[in-house]
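Newbie here. two chains, one complex. Structure please?
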Amino acid sequence: MEPADGSSPGPALEEGIASVFSSAPALMETDGFSNRLKEFLDLHSVAAGGGRKVVCITSGGTTVPLEQRCVRYIDNFSSGHRGAAAAEYFIEAGYAVVFLYRIGSVLPYTRSLPDEPLLECLELDDDSNIRVRKSCAEAVKKYHAAVAGNLLIKLPFTTIFEYLQMLQIVAQAMKPLGRYAMLFLAAAVSDFYIPWQSMAEHKIQSASGPLDMRLVQVPKMLSILRTEWSPLAFCISFKLETDSKILLEKADMALRKYKMHMVVANELQTRKEEVIVVTLDEKIPVHRDKSQPDSDVEQPLVELIVDKHSTYINNHR
Amino acid sequence: MEPADGSSPGPALEEGIASVFSSAPALMETDGFSNRLKEFLDLHSVAAGGGRKVVCITSGGTTVPLEQRCVRYIDNFSSGHRGAAAAEYFIEAGYAVVFLYRIGSVLPYTRSLPDEPLLECLELDDDSNIRVRKSCAEAVKKYHAAVAGNLLIKLPFTTIFEYLQMLQIVAQAMKPLGRYAMLFLAAAVSDFYIPWQSMAEHKIQSASGPLDMRLVQVPKMLSILRTEWSPLAFCISFKLETDSKILLEKADMALRKYKMHMVVANELQTRKEEVIVVTLDEKIPVHRDKSQPDSDVEQPLVELIVDKHSTYINNHR
């Protein structure tokens, strides 16, 4: 059942969402996540009058456990490179960043580093003293500046259950920021899941022939996010497809169905070179600057978004 | 069909294995993997007369792609901590280590480091110079010593298809080492997979109701590994269960069925505290030294294995 314009998302959807949340194990707040978030936002909420905008970036893929004591799970591929890069550019543009990321995905300021940064960024001189290679120093400085300036808070998730609950908490906590809030939903969220109750308690045994699994659809949270959790926030979602033929059509559908301000359409093969920003009025291709070997598509993308976000704020003053 | 003692693994199994390999995409040797491996083993093969033993450690979980252009996959949970720790202790015990690991899992000499080693191991002094925190220096030194001594080669995999093909290449390449070779099979290998041909080419669409999947069993490679790929190597496999009631029984079955020299039985909840080494004659519990806060179960485990491997070599001189 589709929500009518501006109305609540409808009883069928609300039931679906309630059923995911009620079936999920309660969120473990081992690191005082809600309190750390509140302190961070309070800091910028005061500053918001002076113009500090806050973006929540979701990044990396969610997992769907197949067993309650999780040995096996279905994962959605996403390195988290896009979210990490965007975080750096948003901080450069003056935003504070709530970074809601999959554990193990790329973190801001680490993407330019080698795979084994500690081992490869450090070297021994002739006297066996350890030194830092120059190529790694810049990222470390920028990271420490962002942390020292209270411009970055990192909140990790693993499963779809954790992700959905944390997104709700973050979106609701950002509601008081009004139009100064932005949600940049780059995480690769699972479309299908196995409800907690119907999961095997123990590791599925392999001795008994083929394994048949039925997964059900994860209800889309975007409608309720827009209408209830954070109705004034500037909302950007992402659409990834491997089949370019259906990509723009699906991006456009998502834009209208979930009332996003923008949908960023990207194709798996070319996503590091080009994306297409879909709004109600336009389809804007964004390319990386090919004349620069180290350029990325996130820099012009974030520039465009920052510009559209300013317009969105100014049009409603 | 079970192989009779010492015979070939039987035509049914061979067919199953042939079907996995023929359905899989060919291994990409982008980094000259076979050549690097050959050079590494040649080095120690000469040394083998003088007593250099070589262990292949498999580590981390394999993935099973659900789509050919892989967005979603089933993953087997494994941090790779055990394999990485064992690699360090084997090198300390004088072995050369072939480390066949899942990309992104823990690497030797990195487990004692913080999650973001580069950012957290480096600090700025008052003049904004970067320094290395003392707590991180030891690991870096040991890593460089292992690399400089040609005692560690790292070979990364992601999917079950890559893992199985690489394991075959490594085991066959180690065959000339005879009893000086050891296979320490700690990777969490998927039990079920979707044959490449029956996979969706594009991303599975979520609009059309629940998702039904049929996965088939991955044929066990251990029999053919023992009888053909590397018949004299000392073989250790691992059995992980979440249900302690069936653990030892399943470990014992695996020992006999695949003619392992040892099966290390571990339960998900307690695997960092205790494992039980199952051989034909004994069941030996191995604990970490609880009087030492930084101790692990891998140190006494590797000590026991090194001892049993020596006995295995000496009994057949």
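Moderator note: The longest strand of chain B covers residues 234-241. Residues 25-109+145-204+212-314 of chain B form a domain with the Rossmann fold fold (CATH 3.40.50.10300). Thread marked as resolved.
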